[in-house]
Amino acid sequence: MVWSAMTTMRGAPAAALLVLVALAAGARAEDPYHFFEWKVTYGTKTIMGTPQKVILINDQFPGPTINCTSNNNILVNVFNMIDQPLLFHWHGIQQRKNSWQDGLPGTMCPILPNTNFTYHWQPKDQIGTFYYFPSIGMQRAAGGYGLITVHSRDLIPVPFDTPADDFPVLVSDWYTKDHTVLAKNLDAGKGIGRPAGLVINGKNEKDASNPPMYNVEAGKTYRFRVCNVGIKASFNVRMQKHSLLLVEMEGSHTVQNTYDSLDLHIGQCLSFLVKADQAPGDYLLVASTRFIKEVSTITAVMRYNGSSTPPPSQLPEAPSGWAWSINQWRSFRWNLTASAARPNPQGSYHYGQINITRTIKLSTSKGKVDGKERYALNGVSHVDPETPLKLAEYFNATDGVFQYNLIGDVPPAAGTPLKMAPNVITAEFRTFIEVVFENPEKSIDTFHINGYAFFAAGMGPGTWSPASRKTYNLLDTVSRHTIQVYPRSWTAVMLTFDNAGMWNIRSNLWERHYLGEQLYVSVVSPARSLRDEYNMPETSLRCGKVVGLPMPPSYLPA
């Protein structure tokens, strides 16, 4: 059952709790419920030497970790106590049959100031490392993000021993300008510039080391869950005198290769194991920006219990150049024999043997519209309408809100003027589609597809052609949700569009995203069956054209 609720602030906690407890009593034993109540406020923090406004959750930055198990029911009652509309997106959570809870302006009406809304979602058949963030405007530049850890069910084997502890490593570039100022600059046709530096778990260099962020015991092994939760910069992570054993990437168990360091691009998460096998002392976890002329570096202390030895003065050297990063990506492999969220091995899904039914080639571009810079996919720069796209579609009220398929499956001719409009394409339900991202810009980009995991089969320089398929990995590329596209290069992904709903395909560089480098894909089940998609919850928020409209007929029983 999918459930959500909205009440006004006054008297809401007690009323909501009674409803939630009643619902939980009827939950199936194998799908436990976890309840969270978040009060979202502004607070003042001095992170880069300048006091600034930060988005807090229950007075915390980063926000609380959502720690759960596959298929658990997660209910998050969000009280919006800031002065702007608010939504939270659950980055990497597929929201099976349930784009109603995806938390983006194209799928949900915002939570208005001084109101609250309860999200209800499940990490259905998922395990791994994910995160959440506020998705409206440039709010994510002000914090409000946090970790989501999804564990395997007890009966599902995990391909490594249980670590002694599980450590969060949320690394973000950081801007000292207020998020509203960043948005105004973009609205005025300006850029946001370079970040002031990096933070780890919301802390600057000094605060990340005193007291130590990570405490370990000699001889034991620890899991570090690392996410790039920034808006602009890729980074490389490494540890003084310790190797990193990669075990998980965005919900997939990987072949367990050992690395000296790992690149993470915006929106990507992974897990590595570190064995505390060195002489007891302090050691530094190091993160530094990649592909930016002025490198920013931050460190955090990992301390062996009882240590009074300071960390070595020399930091491990960072890699350089694009080729190193591309070659490392090629080394990542899916663990074909390991089980993920289900008992069957990951490799039982033979993606390379499925016939491609359609190729969608998406090329990024930038240009001026009314004298101001915009970004686009295939010539259309996306704008969010007042009525969320999913609601307009569900209520059959798309007239005047958006048109389907303004773009084609191939980019327009060079020099075609950009058009600003809601950018919505359609994909036939349960078809296996190849999506090619082309990045003609001089800087790296990363892309995320909501509602799905995909197979990043190949990448290379220049523009893509059908002959590029000869270079694909059709056996064991990692199933994931976010992938980088290097400058003046392409990346090809493959997936089955089997999750009915309205799903965002976007650049994770939030400046580009804000300026239109995104689209939505509508995936409709022709059976209109509850087997394929949940009905819109009656208590969902409404706005725009759908206010006051009667609910459409229910989908057919499964």
Automatic annotation (TrEMBL):
Signal peptide span: 1-29
What protein family is recorded? Belongs to the multicopper oxidase family.
Q: What is the taxonomic lineage of the source species? A: Eukaryota, Viridiplantae, Streptophyta, Embryophyta, Tracheophyta
InterPro entries (alphabetical): Cu-oxidase-like_N, Cu-oxidase_2nd, Cu-oxidase_C, Cu-oxidase_fam, Cupredoxin
Protein name in UniProt: L-ascorbate oxidase
The record places domain Plastocyanin-like at 40-153, 166-307, 387-526
Which UniProt keywords are listed? Answer: Signal
